[in-house]
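Reviewer 2 asked us to include a model.

Predict the structure of this chain.
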Amino acid sequence: MNRSMWAGARVLGGVTILGAIGWRLGTGPFLDGLRAVGPRSIALAVSITCATTTACAYRWHVVARGLGVGLPLPHAIAAYYRSQFLNTVLPGGIVGDVHRGVDHGRRAGSLSRGLRVVAWERIAGQIAQLAATVLVLSVLPSPVRPALPIVFACTAVVVVALAGAVRVAPRTGVSRSAHAWRVAASDMRHGLLARRAWPAITAASLVAVVGHVSVFVIAAHAAAADAPLRVMLPLALLVLVAASVPTNIGGWGPREGAAAWAFASAGFGAHQGVATATAFGVLMLIATLTGAIVACAGVVRRPSAVAVDMSATVNSVTFEQP
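Predicted model (structure tokens):
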């Protein structure tokens, strides 16, 4: 499957999920989610998203510094807002990340390193989110609790397989795989695992996870999904993990499908799950509108000439936002 076909398949996946939800539940849950958003929930979401965006931008700033292509924190915050807005309104959910990687790389004089910084920064966020999800699912009741032993066993197999692949990967030579290994190992050593880097990256990632979960809980309460935090927390993390799947339309698709399943499994009904996910999507869109201002006002200026095919770059990247 070539890149254009893969990009179309990702969008088609999101459309298919939304179409299936609409066929089974109608438009009612989506409309209820839209109506649930009010001034109080918007104000809370905007405030929390300001903190989470700053934390994510700081994580990007730390990784970039480790890889020798540092960028000022104010610039990182503005660019991250723009990135989130683009991810929210454009298909695939990764265009904003690719854009800031290209922009940073062009400014720093190394397009490859700029894109790698964004990739590692997003990977760090994904790892923190998955770790938090596993921890919460281990101690709190959730729809996937009975399947946790199988999940843990599969995870252990994957970790062992990756460790084995890393162990036998070529560390010398001139082949493409050997070069890729050396670059990845160097990036991890200096960008993620350095003594000055990993505590800051971990703290920033946890702040981001807490922030996104908090906005989801606010959306759930706005949509009248009244449940104790110990019940809502696992559902929120499950939905957020699903939202990271890059088969969506501006974030819509897997998130609503996962919410419908998780809420139905927890006894709240699929309708309630879709309404909550819709309210969350609307709140996140409103909270990231600052990114539209950044994009329109040119606070983060583009290079005068971009010598890359953005569409090809977007299609080749498979990571998504938290």
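The first helix runs from residue 3 to 25. Residues 302-322 have pLDDT under 50 and may be disordered. We have added this to the supplementary material.
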